[in-house]
Amino acid sequence: MNSSKILSNALILSIAVVIAKIIDFLYIVPLYHIIGNKGGALYGYAYVIYTIFMSFLSLPVVFSISKTTSSYQALGYNNVKKRSFLLAKYIFVGLGAISFIFTFLLAPVFARMIIGDITGGNSFNDITLVIRMVSISFLIIPLLSVYRGYFDGHRITNMASVSNSIELIARALISIILSLLANKVFRLPLVWVSCFALIGVFLGPLCSYIYLFVKLRINKNKFNTKIRKVVEPLVSSKTIVKKIMFYMSFLVISDLIRTLYGFIDIVTVVKSLVKYAHFSVSDAEGVIGMITIWTNKFNCMLVAIAIEIFNSLADGLSKSITNNDKKDINYKINQALSLLLIVIVPIAFIVSFLSVPIWMMLFGVDKYGPSVLSYSIFLGLIMAVSTMIFSILRSFKDQKVVLYSLGIGLLLKILLNTSLINAFYKMGLPAYYGSITASIIGYLISTIICFIILYIKYNVNFESFIKSLIDTFCVVLAIFVILFVIKLVVPINNSGFIVNLIVTLFYLLIYLILYFLLAKRFKLFKSVSIKSRWCYAFLCIIKGDSCVSLIFFIF
Question: What residues have CB less than 8 Å from 159, skipping those under 6 apart?
């Protein structure tokens, strides 16, 4: 394939990824206007249950099949590779079917855990129905994950990326179209509108699977090519299964722990807000929908930035660890963490500052929305840093520390969630801040433990990162003092869309100019080399993170 064709394909793939990510972020806006806060709570209950099962049916499956396939491919064991693919399909389709039956039958138990004896909001039967609806997706997602892992294992990442884009786009469009038809055309009850929105969680992956299935059939020769001529040994099915399970075991446990943060929220927040803060059930359910769905999308954006930055670093860091080059290890880790701070800290603070116009433009008038967003975004900030530090520790193959630290953080979340809701209410602060604070404390303690282990066990010096941390916060806080002064002249309030858009753009422009000037003055950008910034910018463009690359180029 000539260079112009390669560039053309890369451009098309990048555009597809960008469009998919934009749709995946923005589809919650029309969905919110269709199902509202009450429907959002139903959607959130089901989606949290969905994410718990995805912790062992999705990403860990992709990773384990990818590693298993690539290892046998490298050895030239084509027959073993094909058997592992076939075995994986049987294993994970079976696991998906068991998960579906388990969730479908125990949906009333989950519903009772979520709502308890509270009345006045979504009913026990409604919650049971949406959980059963989302469980249907467990029949297709494991099979899709096996196919994605198989493509990744052959380094055919372009098709895997396109399949991911297809899933995101199809899920968003199907959810919006079906929920809109259910609401506006058929005038169905809200619970059924939410159910139709959740159908996208099944049909999106189905469309993606069909694409990969067809591509596998068309490109059989690519997958059957033997990279070396060897006599294949007899490898038992038991050995193959053990290999698959070994690769996925750590990711399953770590992902499951993180998804349990959301589960703790859905089973405690509504009841605690009603009991201790005297919220109405409808208001409490509105808040839980914001925490689990609407504002969580902003947090996912920050985590995605952390993942992309680490992925750009991963190969080089692994090589330095293998060579035991401590100087280079220190340099790369500090570079990645400093770069992450330079990007996500200003994003988090400006979203918090402009939470009112941002929420108004996206979702309209809401009693609690801007308040939840203004504080929840800092949870996203901590989650992004923790994601980076967990990934760094995994590069040292020290998964146990990550699991222990995550376990301690989750335990703190369990212990503090209800008590902090009560405490915040008694202090005259928004009670739901207690739940967000419990999550922040949990992730923060987990992250600090990992930092300490990296410093003591692996002799990683964080002096450069700490300097960047202090400088970045000083710059951002200085800007905020100026913005609060400007706010006296140009107020931020509940206005129309056009006014909110103008106000948001005005403050964003001022913020970027001040951040650029003060960062230059404090030599903030010198903590990240010019070479690193341009490399990361290029990588982010290729991967579709155009908003991140734009920040790099501005700097």
Answer: 151, 211, 212, 215
